[in-house]
Structures are given as structure tokens and as C-alpha cells.
């Protein structure tokens, strides 16, 4: 029975707004059955060699960054680090696909995307070191603060993209979220808003198999996370998240689509988290080594290396050069992170309100007295003075 | 049920009776006309003009892009407002009723209240969240909550609540102009309270954070705000017969809190009662009483008393008059201020 045949159905038909076009054929919105791939397929022949080489260098740097940051947690220089090892292709493509004026809305795992977009590696880590909630000025790099509560950054991306379009600016927002985050209400509200407003947003799900310990099968009953798009009236795309060229192409198409005013896209990248959730997590409690090993064969750097060497675009010298450049970056990061951050306790009160309230002024004065007393005590203490 | 008594307003030559709802609508209109970055968004705010008609005519005058009917999703509305503010707009969000703001609490507490602090001042969020609140209108469940304590407990938010037609206009203009997020609590049972008010020459915009003495007196201070102000003014008049000369302080802003005006009043009178609709336990009155005690201990002739709603989920409409603090309960508390006589 069609809608028209239902008794009284006509009364329920909404009055379409002027620009409204009924979705007669949802097929173009549906994702492919298999994740889209470029590397190792015929599609690779069309890929720009310069782009592939750029992606490769960034992947190597990214892997090294993850390793260095994880090492810093072991040395007590970093409180916590959620590694994106194995997911570098997603991180790098997300950063490289955006124009300068575009905005990135990362989750807590996406430090690497922020760094690849040009953020100072140390500034990107201050949240995780614990000295500041956000190390950087979001407007300077057009990177929203790394977001800890799951999926809450997604409606922000929609609002910002919507505001930019209202102002007539050419700005696209790319918002990143994990597979677990797609179950949150904010994910659904953001997708719905974006589709209704035709906001220039790209939602980018990194499906890395787990939300801490919970596998995807316990997170959703959908055929894929990309399929969720169709219910909101936007296209869903499925891509191999370890194939940097494929992720770059699919995200690039989604960004162009948004830029042309055709509205949002949901992209799901199928990838795998090679490390534990964070350095504080024990992944052996919820997954087996054989699964991790199987994904190692599909490593994003290996995939790219194979493609580039196979086509004679990269040789042993190039591989070594990329590795050395990454080591230099890591050494710099290590050195700078080994310096203790200097923090002013009085700054606790500086950015609560535009104008400090009387209550905060009183509390600041109390802290000032405490700090002065501490200082005097140290002056009196010969141990301290030495 | 306590009905809204006449509330004071400006007595100027051009002034005609206006409702609080009209003054609020006018404040939105004037803010939008003055500043193109002001955008109104929420459920039913466009064509319908909001369920209380506060936004009536805005979509027509400024277009759908400036006064937007959103999908029905409070977290989405406030979350989108965060992004809009990040890009330099000044969103004014309407939450349809007090209890329907709760789905947006995650956005409010985790982002709206913290973004300035988190980004060390780089990214202030000038968002105004208008919340019709409180009871006394015979609403069914979820339409009468007094949620101010939740907002007050969240650093980074301003919490403002007008009780007069003048303040409705002035404080809303100031809230929208503020570079900080403001929870603007509208006492919905005062929406139709009238006062002489001149839309052509509205009262000057009051800064946020200053309380005002609505009635001077010598024997005790009633500290109140929003929907309970008319109750307190009525009680003060009734108390004259009992020989009490009560001072009434209207807080207008719960955050920031005007300790100075409140403490000065209590030092003069030596006695104080805090009056509000919201539940007493863990409610605003506890905070206010503690602040008054800390500042005025040696001036106090009696403990600071609270007259508040019961510690119960907001009752069904046919019982709400038993829950809401009315004139008699205020007078009863005033009588209990004769502490020396009892002890
Ligand atoms: C609203 C919220 N609930 C719970 C958490 C705690 N938490 C942090 S990460 C995480 C799992 C997230 O998994 P996923 O979205 O798949 O992202 P991934 O960590 O795999 O990148 C949880 C439950 C949180 N950060 N936010």
C-alpha cells in the first residue's frame, strides 16, 4: 500500500517548502556494500603521485608522533594519550582535505589530525598533559578544541558551518567522531540539523572496531554506520580507512559537495585501533592478538609504501628520508615536552567571565594570600633556598 | 494560587500598559535590529512566534535565517548555537519550557559554560538561553519547574531573572549584548502581568548583576526574585497591619550575585527571609542564607529563614497552590523572625 492509499493520508502530507524536492529514489544516498579502495586497485592509476607522496610522508610522521606521545606517557610527561596508530590514514586525510578557511572539529583521539593541519605538536598535547584544557586558540587554526564528551562537537560543526554560509563565507566544517560516538543523541541531532539546514558539513566516522572495550556489533544493528545517513536524507559513503588515497578522495568529494551547497555527507572509514584505547587501558581483556595481527597486514603505511615502490615513485632512500624527517620531529617534541610547563595559579580566575564577578575577585584574593604565604615559607626554608 | 499582583514599571508620560511578554519581544526585536549577528532559534519560534508568542513577528521582519524554526531537539539547538557563536553570531535560544531544557544540559554544562575558560579567553560564547520557568499557570508535568539551582551551580553561566516589565526589556537587552552565556529565566506566570511601559522610550538597559530594593522598610528584609517578587510585595503590604515594615530586595541576577545590596539591606533591618518557588533543599535559598549569615552575622537578630517550594517533584496543577509559597507563608516566616521572644 502506498502512502496515498492510506485512509486520511492526504491530511498528513506536509506542505513542502519551495525548494523541497521529494526523495523519489534513495539509491544514490546508499553506501556501497564494500568499503571504497584506491591503493592496489585500478583507481590508483588516476591518483596524483605528488599527493600520494605527501600522504606517505605525513603517515610516517604521524606514526612517529603517536609512538613519541605514547612514550611520553611512560615517562610521566603526558598524563594520558589515546593513540591513533593504525588510523593515521584517516587523521591525515581529514587534515589535508580541508582548505585554510575550513574548520576541523576533532574528538579527543584526533590530535594527529590537528597536528597535520598545522597545529604546534606541543600545543596539541597540553590538554593531555594536563596544564590547559585547550592549548591553542581555535580561531587561529580553525580547529575546535579537542572534544572529550562523545559526539558533542558534531552540532557545533553544524552551527558553525550554518553560520558561515549565512554570512556568505566559503567554509566547510569536517567533524570527526568514533564508532561508539554514533550512538549518542548528539550524533543524531547533528545529522538531522545538518540535513535540514543543508549545512556545509562532513561527518567523518572512524570506525576502529571498538568503543573502549565494546565491539561494533554491540553498538549498532545497522548494516554499516554509513547507512545511517539515508534516514536523514544525506548520502552515506563507506571507505577503507587504512587506504589514505581512498579516504582523501572520498572526503574530498564530500567536502566539494558541501562547498557547492549540496549539503552534508556521512563518511564511515573502516579502520582498526592497533593500540589500546589509551595507555591506561588493557586491550587484552576484550580482543585477541590474532585480530590485531590480521590488521597489521593491512597497515596504512605498508599499503602506501607498496603502491609507491611498485610504481617506482619511492625507493629505499625515500623511505629512509621520510623516517629521518619523522625522527627529527619526534626529537623536537620530546625535548620540548621534557621542559616543565610554567603555570600561574592566578590564571584560574582569569577566563571564567568577560568581567570578573565580585565573588571571583574575593576568591582570587584568598588564593593570592595563600600563594604569598607559601612563597614566604619557602624563603624561610634553607632546604628550599639551596 | 498566588496571582500576579501589579508590578512596578516606569511611569513616564508616553507609558501605556504593556505586558512582560511584549517587553521581552520588543527586546529581541530591538537587539536584532541593532546587531545583525543576533539570531533567534528554537522550536516554533518562527511562524508561530513561540508558544508564548515572545518571538512573534521576528521571522516576518528579519527572515527565517535570523529567526529559525529548528528541528525538535534541544541538544541540537544549543549545540548548533555553540557553533554559530564560535563563528561570531550571537544566538538567542528559546527553550520551550523549563523541563524541556534538560536534554540540552550536556551542551550547556560541558561546552556553553566552559568554552571561554577552556580556550583561555580566545573563544567566548555570547549565547542567551531563554527559559520560561516556574509554576502558577496550571501546567501539566514538565511545564512548571524552577531549574535555577542547576544553572547557578555551573560556573561560567550568568543566571538572570526579571520580575518587572522594565527589567524584562532591560535585562534581556543586556543579556544578549553580554559576551558571556546567559541563562535568562522568564517567570512565565508574570508574562501577562502589566505595567505602564513605554516601548518608544524603554528604560535604560540595566547592567547584569545588580539587585534592587523594590520597597524600603526597617524591620526585616525579604530577599526574592522572579515570580515571587509580587508575592513578597503583597506580603509586605499585608504586614503593615501587624506592625512590620518590610524591605523587599529583588535580586534580578542570581549569578553574579549582588552581595553588597543584599548585605546592606540586612545590616539595616537585622532580619531576613529568602523567598522562592524552587525547592528549598539544595535550592538557591540555602546559598543566599549562607552568604547573608557570613556577611551580617553580628547584625542578625534571628536566623535567616527560607520560604521555598516543598522538596517534592512539581505537583499536578490542582495541587500547585499548596506547593507555591504564597503571602501567608511569607507572613508566617516574618512572624518567626521574632526570635528573641521564642528563645
Ligand atoms: C558522553 C561520553 N560518555 C562516555 C565517555 C567515556 N568514553 C571515552 S572514550 C569512549 C569510547 C568511545 O569510542 P568511539 O566513539 O568508538 O571512539 P574511539 O575511542 O574508538 O576513537 C567512552 C565510552 C565520554 N568521553 N563521553
Break the fold down into its secondary structure elements and pairings:
The complex is a heterodimer of chains A (386) and B (343).
Chain A lengths: L8 H4 L36 H26 L13 H9 L6 E3 L5 H6 L9 H4 L8 H4 L11 H14 L6 E6 L6 H13 L3 E7 L2 E2 L2 E2 L12 H5 L3 E5 L3 H16 L5 E6 L18 H8 L3 H11 L5 H22 L20 H23 L1 H4 L1
Parallel strand pairs in A: 1-2, 2-3, 3-7, 6-7
Antiparallel strand pairs in A: 4-5
Helix pairs in contact in A: 2-3, 2-12, 2-13, 3-10, 7-8
Chain B lengths: L15 E4 H15 L3 E5 L15 H5 L4 E3 L4 H13 L3 E5 L10 H8 L2 H4 L9 E6 L14 H5 L5 E3 L4 H13 L4 E6 L6 E4 L14 E4 L4 E5 L4 H11 L6 E5 L2 E3 L3 H11 L2 E8 L4 H13 L8 E5 L10 H4 L3 H10 L2 H4 L1
Parallel strand pairs in B: 2-3, 2-4, 4-5, 5-7, 6-7, 10-11, 10-13, 13-14
Antiparallel strand pairs in B: 1-8, 6-12, 9-11
The structure holds thiamine diphosphate.
Thiamine diphosphate (TPP) binds next to strand 4 of chain A.
The proportion of strand residues of chain A reads 5-15%
Largest interface comes to: A-B, 43 and 49 residues
Query: What overall geometry of chain B do the principal axes of the alpha carbons give?
Result: globular
Architecture (CATH level 2) name of the largest domain in chain B: 3-Layer(aba) Sandwich
User: What is the first-to-last residue Cα distance of chain A?
Assistant: 88 Å
The count of DSSP E runs of length 2 or more, i.e. the number of strands of chain A, is 7
**Radius of gyration of CA atoms of chain A, rounded to a whole number:** 24 Å
Protein name (chain A): Pyruvate dehydrogenase (Acetyl-transferring) E1 component subunit alpha
GO molecular function (chain A): magnesium ion binding; oxidoreductase activity, acting on the aldehyde or oxo group of donors, disulfide as acceptor
Cofactor (chain A): thiamine diphosphate
Region (Disordered) (chain A): 1-27, 367-386
Amino acid at each position: 500500500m502506498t502512502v496515498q492509499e492510506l485512509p486520511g493520508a492526504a491530511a498528513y502530507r506536509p506542505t513542502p517548502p519551495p525548494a523541497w524536492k521529494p526523495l523519489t529514489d534513495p539509491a544514490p544516498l546508499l553506501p556501497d556494500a564494500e568499503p571504497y579502495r584506491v591503493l592496489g586497485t585500478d583507481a590508483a592509476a588516476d591518483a596524483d603521485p605528488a599527493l600520494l607522496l605527501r600522504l606517505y610522508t605525513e603517515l610516517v610522521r604521524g606514526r612517529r608522533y603517536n609512538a613519541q606521545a605514547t612514550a611520553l606517557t611512560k615517562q610521566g610527561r603526558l598524563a594520558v594519550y589515546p593513540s591513533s596508530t593504525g588510523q593515521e590514514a584517516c587523521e591525515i586525510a581529514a587534515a589535508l582535505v580541508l582548505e585554510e578557511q575550513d574548520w576541523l572539529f576533532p574528538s579527543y583521539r584526533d590530535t594527529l589530525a590537528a597536528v597535520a593541519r598545522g597545529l604546534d605538536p606541543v600545543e596539541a598535547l597540553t590538554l593531555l598533559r594536563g596544564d590547559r584544557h585547550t592549548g591553542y586558540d581555535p580561531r587561529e587554526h580553525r580547529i575546535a578544541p579537542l572534544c572529550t564528551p562523545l559526539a558533542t562537537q558534531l552540532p557545533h560543526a553544524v552551527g558553525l558551518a550554518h553560520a558561515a554560509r549565512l554570512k556568505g563565507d566559503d567554509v566547510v566544517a569536517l567533524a570527526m567522531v568514533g564508532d561508539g560516538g554514533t550512538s549518542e543523541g548528539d550524533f543524531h541531532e547533528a545529522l538531522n540539523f545538518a540535513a535540514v539546514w543543508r549545512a556545509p558539513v562532513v561527518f567523518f566516522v572512524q570506525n576502529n572496531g571498538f568503543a573502549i572495550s565494546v565491539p561494533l556489533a554491540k553498538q549498532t544493528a545497522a548494516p554499516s554506520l554509513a547507512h545511517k545517513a539515508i534516514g536523514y536524507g544525506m548520502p552515506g559513503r563507506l571507505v577503507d580507512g587504512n587506504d589514505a588515497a581512498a579516504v582523501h578522495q572520498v572526503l574530498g568529494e564530500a567536502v566539494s559537495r558541501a562547498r557547492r551547497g549540496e549539503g552534508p555527507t556521512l563518511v564511515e572509514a573502516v579502520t582498526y585501533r592497533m593500540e589500546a584505547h589509551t595507555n591506561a587501558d588493557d586491550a587484552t581483556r576484550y580482543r585477541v592478538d590474532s585480530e590485531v595481527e590480521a590488521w597489521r597486514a593491512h597497515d596504512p603505511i605498508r599499503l602506501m609504501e607498496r603502491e609507491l615502490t611498485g610504481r617506482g615513485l619511492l625507493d629505499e632512500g625515500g623511505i629512509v628520508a621520510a623516517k629521518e624527517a619523522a625522527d627529527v620531529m619526534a626529537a623536537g617534541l620530546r625535548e620540548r615536552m621534557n621542559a616543565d610547563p610554567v603555570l600561574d595559579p592566578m590564571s584560574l580566575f582569569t577566563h571564567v567571565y568577560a568581567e570578573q564577578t565580585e565573588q571571583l575577585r574575593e576568591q582570587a584574593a584568598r588564593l593570592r594570600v595563600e600563594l604569598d604565604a607559601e612563597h614566604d615559607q619557602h624563603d624561610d626554608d634553607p632546604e628550599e633556598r639551596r | 494560587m498566588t496571582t500576579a499582583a501589579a508590578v512596578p514599571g516606569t511611569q513616564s508620560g508616553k507609558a501605556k500598559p504593556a505586558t512582560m511578554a511584549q517587553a521581552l519581544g520588543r527586546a529581541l526585536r530591538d537587539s536584532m535590529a541593532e546587531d545583525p549577528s543576533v539570531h533567534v532559534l528554537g522550536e516554533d519560534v518562527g511562524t508561530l512566534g513561540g508558544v508564548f508568542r515572545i518571538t512573534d513577528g521576528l521571522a516576518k521582519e528579519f527572515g527565517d535565517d535570523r529567526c529559525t524554526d529548528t528541528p525538535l531537539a534541544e541538544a541540537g539547538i544549543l549545540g548548533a548555537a555553540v557553533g554559530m557563536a564560535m563563528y561570531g553570531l550571537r544566538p538567542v535560544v528559546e527553550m520551550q519550557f523549563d523541563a524541556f531544557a534538560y536534554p540540552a544540559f550536556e551542551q550547556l554544562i560541558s561546552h556553553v559554560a566552559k568554552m571561554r575558560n577552556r580556550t583561555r579567553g580566545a573563544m567566548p560564547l555570547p549565547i542567551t538561553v531563554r527559559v520560561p520557568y516556574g509554576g502558577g499557570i496550571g501546567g501539566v508535568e514538565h511545564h512548571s519547574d524552577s531549574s535555577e539551582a542547576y544553572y547557578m551551580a555551573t560556573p561560567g553561566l550568568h543566571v538572570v531573572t526579571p520580575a518587572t516589565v522594565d527589567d524584562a526589556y532591560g535585562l534581556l537587552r543586556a543579556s544578549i549584548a553580554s559576551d558571556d552565556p546567559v541563562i535568562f529565566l522568564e517567570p512565565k506566570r508574570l508574562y501577562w502581568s502589566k505595567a505602564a511601559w513605554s516601548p518608544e522610550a524603554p528604560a535604560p538597559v540595566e547592567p547584569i548583576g545588580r539587585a534592587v530594593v523594590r520597597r524600603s522598610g526597617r524591620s526585616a528584609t525579604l530577599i526574592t526574585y522572579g515570580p515571587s517578587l509580587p508575592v513578597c510585595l503583597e506580603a509586605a503590604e499585608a504586614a503593615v497591619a501587624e506592625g512590620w515594615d518590610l524591605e523587599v530586595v529583588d535580586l534580578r541576577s542570581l549569578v553574579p550575585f549582588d552581595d553588597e545590596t543584599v548585605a546592606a539591606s540586612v545590616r539595616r533591618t537585622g532580619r531576613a527571609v529568602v523567598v522562592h518557588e524552587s525547592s528549598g533543599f539544595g535550592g538557591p535559598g540555602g546559598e543566599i542564607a549562607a552568604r547573608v549569615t557570613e556577611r551580617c552575622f553580628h547584625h542578625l537578630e534571628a536566623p535567616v529563614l527560607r520560604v521555598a517550594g516543598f522538596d517534592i517533584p512539581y505537583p499536578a496543577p490542582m495541587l500547585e497552590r499548596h506547593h507555591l509559597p504564597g503571602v501567608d507563608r511569607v507572613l508566617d516566616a516574618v512572624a518567626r523572625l521574632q526570635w528573641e521572644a521564642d528563645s
